[in-house]
Structure formats: structure tokens, C-alpha cells
Design a protein that fits this description.
The complex is a heterodimer. Chain A is built from 4 helices and 9 strands, in the order βββαβββββααβα. Helices cover about 20% and strands about 30% of the residues of chain A. Chain A is globular. Chain A has helices at about 30-35, 85, 90-95, 120-125, and strands at about 10, 15-20, 25-30, 40-45, 50, 55-65, 65-70, 75-80, 105. By secondary structure, chain A is of the alpha+beta class. Chain A has a 6-stranded antiparallel sheet. A 3-stranded antiparallel sheet of chain A has the order 4-6-7. Chain A has a single domain (about 10-125), classed as RNA polymerase II/Efflux pump adaptor protein, barrel-sandwich hybrid domain (OB fold (Dihydrolipoamide Acetyltransferase, E2P), Beta Barrel), CATH 2.40.50.100. Chain B folds into 2 domains: about 1-310, Gyrase A, domain 2 (2-Layer Sandwich), CATH 3.30.1360; about 315-395, Elongation Factor Tu (Ef-tu), domain 3. Chain B is about 20% helix and about 30% strand. A 6-stranded mixed sheet of chain B has the order 10-11-12-9-3-13. A 6-stranded antiparallel β-barrel of chain B has the order 14-17-16-15-18-19. In chain B, strand 15 and strand 16 (about 340-350) form a beta hairpin. Chain B is globular, with a radius of gyration of 21 Å. The chains are: A alpha+beta, B alpha+beta.
């Protein structure tokens, strides 16, 4: 299994959060999630300016096999949506922790981060077999 | 380590080969099958469109039917004109119920005189994996009316491999040239001289090397389910496993069910259980060209005849989306004014055409080419346009 970056926090729904120095947060899906999904062909995300609550539905990823909901690991105002994913959904498979970030948001409350897992905890969760299988 | 198969799932003889290739195995129609290998579904789809890919289709049902009145029997249970395909011909057709609904879509191979492990058999009927029990049960009901006709299920005694793509025939030709020993049918020397929907008997040594004693044979037909040129090979289990390895050694890309589904949808081949089923007739599905006029004896003929006269109330159409979104089986199809006119039966993003495509049944009044409709994709209404089928056809 790919190692997951240590400077990110993770949800049990297989999304990640990376806090930026300016207090905003980048959100994406994990390597495990993209592997389960298979080739991504279309990503549906809300528009910048809208708001989302923690663990509420953020959007959808369509893979060649199926559609999967994406849940926002943090609540907040969506500042930016990764426009590159519209033309290049395959980035989700190639660089889930890099170029394939989904949204940038301004978190509602920093305390929500505490409800997320560290990389170590997330990996323990994956190997416990409780992780959602087969999307 | 090889895990035992989950209960009630069967494995093909190529199961271990799939696992060794890094396949992701999933339950499908009662079988544990590869949905994709390490390269992913899009790469596999591309391999078939531009090179050559191979599919383990050993899960498909293979029924050997023989006896003096075998053709009469098949004339009754299939839409195919079973008295017309000469030895060496393959025909696509349907098993229908009394309501004209499609129990299964099949390929009937006339293998009379072929030198195969199946023995002196006249016909080899290939049906869908998931429908094999239903097809066997349905055919057995009519069997007593045709004394002397026997039906033997050969599915688990053989391997079936589909070799598909523009590189498929050249590859088989090369193997055959090297070990020139051909089947009994006069095919003019090489497999590429087989016309579409014809077959020859074939032995492993034709495809591979001169083995002694001669191994039991099978058949090679110029058929497939991808919209590309190619062949399907049926061989006894041991020989079939070896041929898979020979193909693999020649760089043929192994492809799973995911790529197979994309490829067949681009070519607008119906998938039983999705686009056709026991409640839909060949006429509603736009497959009338596969119901020959020469056979008026088959079960369900009267219903089709009535539909021919009166017309159908719904039709299977192909559409492309005008905005992004992926139509999936069961999604509602709406008219532009918002009333429900049908539903999606298959849909996907087509990597070859770079557009989202789908098929579905709509009321006939809404089935005109070029007309607009709306696909309800969860909470979104996405505009679409009815387009001619197939979505993709290979250059000839």
C-alpha cells in the first residue's frame, strides 16, 4: 500500500485534508480511494462560493466502473475548485495527493480537524479491514 | 497463496493466471472473474482498439447439441434458421420465451465434421454465463419432442478465449504459419481468410507447436464482442491454459470484464440483463436483422409476427450526452418537457469517442434520430441527443 503523506489528516470515507500556511485547507481523495475506484472519468464538484458542512456530501467521482460520493472532511466555505480535473480526471489516479486536489476551503472551525485521523491512524484503519470495500 | 473460491462461485481454469497477472477478481454471473488487471480498464480498452487484447470468456455457457434432428430442435428453440448455417458457420440469435421475450442471446456454431474434443457433435451453442441454467432448463423442456437429440454441457471441460483487436488476426496467422497444420475446413490456409462468422477446427499444435500425440482440438471462430476484428478460441482445458500463456508471451494485453463492457457498449452490442431481458423482444431492441425470415417455427414467433404488423410501443435507442455525466442502468429518461419516456439500460464514458454514451428504451414517439431527451442523473438533468448505432465502428 502506498504511504500516505504524514502532513495530512484523513477521514474514514477516504478523503484527505492538508492545512495551508494561510489557514485554508486543500481537500482530496486518498490513494486507497482512487485504487478502489479504478480509472476516474468525471468529477462533479460544487461551485466556488458555496459552503459545505463537515462529513456532508461534497461531490461525486465517476469511474469507469461506478459512481462514488465524496464527503467533505471539513466544513467551510469553498474558495476554489480544481479546474484541471474537468479536463484531466485521470490525475485522481496518478496524483491523488498532489495535482488532483479537489477543492480549497476556508474551514469553519479548526476543532473539526480533531475528528479526523492521522496518517498512522488512517493506515491502521485500512489494515483493520473496516475500510469500505469495493466502492 | 490461492484462497478457496467464495461459496457458490465458480472459477475458470485460468483463475490462477489472472491472479498472477494482478487481476482484481469480482463475482460475476456466478463466477469469480477479472474485472481489470494492473493496467486498468482504460488502458485495456485502448489495447483492444489499437493492438490486441485477450479475454477469458470461459464462463460463457457451451452446450454441445447433436442427433439427426438437432437442426429441427434448434429451429424450435432459437430464432436462428438452424437448417441454413453450413458446417463452419456461426450465427447470432435468440432464445425466446412464449411472449417473445429474450431468455438469452446466443451464438450457434455449426461444427459438424470438425475434429474436436467434443466428439461427433453437430452444434455448439454459446450462451451467457448467467443465463446458462435458464437456457439449459428452457431447452430441456422442448427436447422430448425431438427424440434422439442430445444436449451436453461442455462449459467446464473447456477454456474459451477471445483474442480481439486489429492485431488479433495477424497474430494468429503468424502462429499458424509457423506450424502449418490446419483444421478440416478449407479456409485457404490462414485464419485471416476466415470470413466473419465462420469457424474452423483448431488444435493447439496449429497455434503453438507440433505435439505428439496430437492433442484434442477445439474451434476457432471469427467472432467477438468488442467491435474489433478478432477470433474466439475454444479448446480443452489443458490446451486452453497453454494457449493463454502463449498469447501472453507474445505481449497480448489481458483484459477484464470492465474493458469488455466498455468495448461492447461502444459497438452497441446488447448486454443481456441490461439492454435485453425476458421482458423485451428483439424487435423492441432493434435486433430484427438477427431474426431471419427462414425460421417460422420458433417459440415466440407469433408474438414477433404480431409486433411486426402492429409496431412496437418502445424502442432501444442510443444517445450521447451534451454535458458531462455518466448515465447508468436504471436512470430515468425524460422528454424535454420533463415527462418520463423511458430508462437507461447501459451507459458509460466512452474513452474511444471521448463522450458520455448510453442506450435505453424510450416510447416510440420519442425515438427519432437526432431528437433531444434528458437523462436524470441522480439530482441532475443532463441533456442528451439520440444518435445512430453503433457509437463506434472500426475502419475496414
Amino acid at each position: 500500500m502506498t504511504t500516505n503523506p504524514r502532513d495530512m489528516r484523513y477521514s474514514k470515507e477516504h478523503e484527505w485534508v492538508k492545512m495551508q500556511p494561510d489557514g485554508t485547507a486543500l481537500v482530496g481523495i486518498t490513494a486507497f480511494a482512487q485504487d478502489q475506484l479504478g480509472d476516474a472519468v468525471y468529477v462533479s464538484l460544487p461551485k466556488a462560493g458555496s459552503s459545505v458542512k463537515q462529513f456532508a456530501k461534497l461531490g461525486e467521482v465517476e469511474s469507469v466502473k461506478a459512481v462514488s460520493d465524496i464527503f467533505s472532511p471539513l466544513g467551510g466555505e469553498i474558495l476554489e475548485v480544481n479546474a484541471e480535473l474537468a479536463a484531466h480526471p485521470e490525475l485522481l489516479n496518478k496524483e491523488p495527493y498532489g495535482k488532483a486536489w479537489l477543492i480549497k476551503l476556508r474551514p469553519t472551525s479548526a476543532s473539526e480537524l480533531e475528528k479526523l485521523l492521522s496518517a498512522e491512524q488512517y493506515e491502521a484503519f485500512l489494515s483493520s479491514g473496516d475500510a469500505r470495500k469495493g466502492h | 497463496m490461492v484462497q478457496p473460491a467464495p461459496q457458490s462461485l465458480s472459477r475458470t481454469p485460468l483463475y490462477q493466471a489472472h491472479v498472477a497477472l494482478g487481476a482484481r477478481m469480482v463475482p460475476f454471473a456466478g463466477w469469480e472473474m477479472p474485472v481489470q488487471y494492473a493496467g486498468g480498464i482504460l488502458a485495456e480498452t485502448r489495447a483492444v482498439r489499437t493492438g490486441v487484447g485477450m479475454f477469458d470468456v470461459s464462463h460463457m455457457g457451451r452446450l454441445a447439441i447433436t442427433g439427426d434432428r438437432a437442426a429441427d430442435f434448434l429451429q424450435r428453440v432459437l430464432t436462428v434458421d438452424a437448417r441454413s448455417p453450413k458446417p463452419g458457420r456461426s450465427k447470432y440469435g435468440f432464445v425466446l420465451n412464449e411472449q417473445g421475450g429474450i431468455v438469452d442471446d446466443i451464438i450457434l456454431n455449426n461444427i459438424e465434421g470438425a475434429d474436436t474434443a467434443f466428439g461427433l457433435v453437430k452444434f455448439l451453442l454459446v450462451c451467457n454465463a448467467g443465463n446458462r441454467p435458464a437456457v439449459v432448463a428452457w431447452l430441456r423442456k422442448s427436447l422430448p419432442q425431438f427424440p434422439g437429440v442430445t444436449m451436453k454441457d461442455e462449459t467446464e471441460a473447456s477454456v474459451m478465449i477471445a483474442l480481439q483487436g486489429p492485431g488479433a488476426l495477424p497474430l494468429v496467422d503468424k502462429l499458424s504459419q509457423k506450424y502449418a497444420d490446419h483444421g478440416m475446413y478449407e479456409i485457404g490456409g490462414l485464419p485471416s481468410s476466415l470470413r466473419p462468422f465462420t469457424l474452423t477446427d483448431v488444435r493447439e499444435d496449429v497455434l503453438q507447436r507440433n505435439l505428439y500425440p496430437k492433442p484434442p482440438g477445439g474451434i476457432l471462430s471469427r467472432t467477438g464482442y468488442t467491435g474489433e476484428d478478432g477470433v474466439e478460441v475454444i479448446l480443452p482445458t489443458v490446451q486452453g491454459i497453454r494457449i493463454w500463456q502463449v498469447f501472453q508471451g507474445l505481449g497480448v494485453v489481458p483484459c477484464g470484464l470492465g474493458a469488455r463492457d466498455l468495448l461492447r457498449l461502444e459497438a452497441a452490442f446488447p448486454l443481456h440483463g441490461n439492454d435485453i431481458d425476458p421482458t423485451t423482444t428483439p424487435l423492441e431492441a432493434g435486433l430484427e436483422r438477427f431474426v431471419p425470415e427462414g425460421n417460422t417455427e420458433f417459440i415466440g414467433w407469433d408474438v414477433l409476427e404480431r409486433q411486426r404488423g402492429q409496431g412496437v410501443t418502445r424502442k432501444l435507442v442510443g444517445f450521447k450526452l451534451l454535458e458531462r455525466g455518466v448515465p447508468r442502468h436504471g436512470f430515468p429518461l425524460l422528454s424535454e418537457s420533463g415527462s418520463t419516456i423511458g430508462h437507461v439500460t447501459s451507459g458509460a464514458f466512452s474513452p474511444t469517442l471521448n463522450v458520455d454514451i448510453g442506450m435505453g428504451y424510450v416510447q416510440v414517439g420519442h425515438a427519432q434520430m437526432g431528437s433531444r431527451l434528458v437523462v436524470e442523473i441522480r439530482d441532475r438533468n443532463v441533456p442528451a441527443e439520440i444518435v445512430p448505432l453503433p457509437f463506434y465502428s472500426r475502419k475496414r
